[in-house]
From TrEMBL:
HAMAP family: UPF0173. Keywords: Hydrolase. This is UPF0173 metal-dependent hydrolase SAMN05192574_102702. Residues 7-189 form the Metallo-beta-lactamase domain. Pfam families: Lactamase_B_2. It comes from the Bacteria. Transmembrane segments: none annotated. GO terms for molecular function: hydrolase activity. The lineage of its organism: Bacteria, Pseudomonadati, Bacteroidota, Sphingobacteriia, Sphingobacteriales. InterPro entries: Metallo-B-lactamas, RibonucZ/Hydroxyglut_hydro, UPF0173, UPF0173_UPF0282_UlaG_hydrolase.
Length: 225
């Protein structure tokens, strides 16, 4: 299993011979200017919520790749109105077995409105169970005690937002890591806008002091999970 980071919360996980693309906000992000979205050929696209900085490239990539979109039921319905029919709608607390592994949709505390003003349902996170591993993609979220529900899942890795302002920041992400009982953290949702720019050295030092393994991959960088 490996992951490639594309900036903000956009990333790809390759597992079970399938490519899973999360929250595709790439082409409008100046930090990701070297990433060609047409070179991405995901088998699945997982969408945590409807905000533009998570779905900006969703329609184009879904149409060009034919990927199945996994998302909350309301976004699934919205995609149908846009001509995207290869969709698997879910809701909070539900899980489903796909050909690469199992996906469970979990709670996130945020908001969710689609770019055209349509309601995006509830925001969500995902836990991916594949290749004998469990990986948590938190989506955009505040620190929430619901994360304690994952502490017995033996999570191998967790993607947590650390940019503050719109989501939890580094201090709350450290608390979240304790809630979910996971030492290996990949930080996301930072630096794309001035209000979520972080001091990387300071954040890394905080995670080290907490006994956590924090990764902040460069855009386009691939790491093994």
């Amino acid at each position: 299993m490996k992951t490639t980071y594309y900036g903000q919360s956009a990333l790809e996980i390759v597992t079970g011979g399938k490519k899973l693309l999360f929250d595709p906000f790439i082409s409008p992000n100046p930090l990701a200017k070297d990433i060609d979205i047409h070179s991405l050929k995901p088998d699945y696209i997982l969408v945590s919520h409807g905000h533009g900085d998570h779905v900006a490239d969703l329609l184009e990539i879904a149409k060009s790749s034919g990927a199945k979109v996994i998302c909350i039921a309301e976004i699934a319905g919205w995609l149908g109105t846009k001509g995207i029919e290869n969709v698997h709608g879910m809701n909070i607390g539900g899980g489903f077995n796909f050909d690469f592994g199992r996906v469970k949709m979990v709670n996130a505390v945020h908001s969710s409105t689609l770019p055209d003003g349509s309601p995006g349902g509830n925001p969500a996170g995902f836990v991916i169970y594949a290749e004998g591993k469990a990986v948590y993609f938190a989506g955009d979220t505040a620190l929430t005690y619901d994360m304690k529900l994952l502490e017995d899942d033996n999570l191998d890795w967790a993607f947590l937002p650390i940019g503050d302002n719109y989501t939890m920041g580094a201090d709350d992400a450290i608390k979240a890591a304790a809630f979910i009982n996971c030492k290996n953290i990949i930080g996301v949702h930072y630096d794309s806008f001035p209000v979520i720019k972080i001091d990387k050295d300071e954040v890394v030092e905080k995670f080290i002091k907490a006994g956590l393994n924090l990764k902040l991959p460069a855009i386009g960088e691939t790491i093994e999970l």
